[in-house]
Write a structure and sequence with these properties.
single chain, 540 residues, alpha+beta, Arc Repressor Mutant, subunit A, Rossmann fold, Serine Threonine Protein Phosphatase 5, Tetratricopeptide repeat, 6-stranded mixed sheet, 5-stranded antiparallel sheet, 23 helices, 13 strands, 56% helix, 12% strand
Length: 540
């Protein structure tokens, strides 16, 4: 659909805003906001309406909402003082007041398809994101008055899922229109334009409550996830919180995996920035070539959508991984590029929890700005407290801040949210590092053993394990680890290790001294083999 007002043209199919024939650059959320206001110009829309439609009901700060409204006004030559096109009704909401002419796009489908689109307001929200509807839960108890508990579960789960930045969640007000209806998941998906549907039931007796849920792909009816929860009625509110948290943590990776598969099957010619982002997942730690391929896809995504904060964050994290795994030396100019991407991610991702924690971790590792990194990760968790990766990143940074008790709690929270982590070595290496910082080298060594069982060539675990072996007098074992490390990272040296860790540990020089002392005892060279050979040649 084309909407024309003054000198502007809003094209919802192409997701373009033009002024006098010239393209106007707008962020995706700003475009969605403009589209929503124009489509609902016959009525006053509240801030809650906007949040439900544009942000899928996620928690949004007042400053973020105000910023997007100001950006929408600026894009169409309006401002908060003039309010020529977007008028604010104090304490009530907003209304688009310009004269608008609707014109069907010549390339758009005709006839019944247009009528269907107009009858389905959510489907006109042109979004590339994965989308989900949480249907009203069935009350299987004898008491109809218990509907309030089932409805409360739907509200809590919808709100928890709404904190996932890449997931578009249909507002619960729309979901409740399906109450007491026979549900055909595929038909519901087609009606509301959603890819996934979550259904559930609640059964209560005098003492216990049982909650069962299932997640279905609306495109083919395939069940993706099934969970059951039970608990005592005496702890009813804690059960609601636990179910919402657990489901959000379980559903997000299940949907992300499904979306990655969908993006990889999509023809290259029609791939969007979001598709390219999905294809870059997960950022590879075991293969430099694959890591660089992820970066190539992410730069392409950023070129298509320069406001894509998560793409900047993931690209920054790819650079951080390259440094942590020894693929980039501390003096490599690409480290500055990783920091540049991280800072952009932090700036653009004001309401993007994934961009924030990835930026925070990268800034901590590559620049040694631990306090700044911790603040970004804390902000990420305030938006989405159900992100296992963000809790893990927070534990890493809290360790560097000298707060081991907080770090251990955060690692525990991360593991509870993601008990089947496919990168378990990263968890055990991080917890082992915290033990090392406290001086408990034996515990660190035991946990590093778990990490190396999960992935024998994990270089961060190998390096710290070699240091632990040196400190504990297990020299032969330490030498074996060093030999393996030098195969994986030929240029690894004491000097390079010092340069890598010094900015992170800051004033805690005792930890760095212990790492270097243990590595020396296990046989890590002070300089690279190439440097040693050059020194021998010069001496001759």
């Amino acid at each position: 659909m084309l909407y024309r007002f003054e000198a502007f043209e809003l094209d919802t199919r192409r997701r373009e805003l033009c002024s006098a024939g010239k393209l106007v650059a707008v962020e995706p959320q700003v475009f969605d906001l403009l589209e929503y206001l124009v489509q609902n110009r016959e009525r006053l829309v509240s801030k809650d309406d906007i949040i439900a439609s544009v942000w899928g009901g996620r928690v949004v700060s007042e400053s973020t909402l105000t910023s997007r409204i100001n950006s929408a006004r600026a894009a169409i030559g309006d401002d908060g003082k003039a309010q020529r096109l977007i008028k604010t009704i104090r304490h009530r909401g907003l209304r688009f007041v310009a004269d608008v002419v609707e014109e069907r796009d010549a390339e758009a489908p005709a006839g019944p398809a247009i009528a269907a689109e107009q009858a389905q307001p959510h489907k006109t929200m042109a979004t590339e994101k994965a989308s989900i509807l949480v249907l009203p839960f069935a009350n299987l108890s004898d008491d109809p008055a218990q509907n309030y508990f089932a409805d409360g579960m739907v509200e809590d789960i919808t709100m928890a899922l709404g904190r996932v930045p890449w997931l578009f969640v249909i507002a619960s007000a729309s979901a409740f229109t399906f109450r007491d209806r026979v549900i055909d998941v595929r038909r519901v998906g087609a009606e509301l334009g959603v890819r996934y549907v979550l259904q559930g039931s609640v059964r209560k007796d005098r003492r216990r409550v049982r909650i069962a849920v299932q997640l279905t792909d609306a495109s083919d009816g395939r069940q993706l996830l099934s969970e059951r929860f039970e608990g005592s009625l005496a702890q009813i509110f804690s059960i609601q919180d636990r179910v919402a948290m657990r489901l959000s943590a379980a559903i997000a990776p299940a949907l992300r995996s499904r979306e990655v598969d969908r993006a990889q099957r999509k023809p290259t010619s029609s791939q969007t920035a979001y598709d390219l982002f999905l294809r870059a997942l997960p950022p590879r730690r075991d293969n430099l070539v694959q890591n660089q391929e992820s970066l190539r896809l992410l730069y392409k995504a950023i070129k298509l959508d320069p406001s894509f904060s998560s793409a900047y964050g993931l690209a920054a994290w790819c650079h951080e991984i390259q440094v942590v795994f020894g693929w980039l030396q501390p003096s490599d100019p690409r480290i500055k590029e990783g920091l540049r991407l991280a800072r952009i991610a932090a700036e653009l991702g004001d309401n993007d929890p994934d961009a924030l924690w990835m930026a925070g971790l990268t800034i901590t590792t590559l620049a040694g700005e631990v306090v700044r990194g911790a603040a970004l990760i804390a902000k990420s968790l305030s938006i989405n407290p159900n992100s296992a990766r963000a809790w893990w990143a927070s534990g890493v940074v809290q360790t560097y801040l000298g707060r081991p008790e907080v770090a251990f709690r955060n690692f525990e929270r991360s593991q509870k949210l993601n008990p089947l982590d496919t990168a378990a070595y990263a968890h055990w290496t991080a917890v082992a590092t915290t033990h090392f910082f406290t001086g408990n080298h034996q515990a660190a060594g035991d946990l590093l053993g778990k990490a190396l069982i999960d992935w024998p060539d994990a270089t961060p675990a190998l390096r710290l394990k070699a240091a632990v072996c040196g400190l504990l007098g297990r020299i032969e074992e330490g030498r074996n680890h060093i030999q393996r490390l030098l195969v994986l990272i030929p240029d690894l040296t004491i000097a390079g290790t010092r340069a890598h860790f010094a900015p992170i540990v800051g004033s805690n020089t005792g930890v760095l001294d212990a790492v270097l002392r243990g590595l020396r005892r296990s046989g890590l060279p002070e300089g690279s083999p190439r440097e040693s050979n050059l020194a021998k040649i010069r001496s001759v």
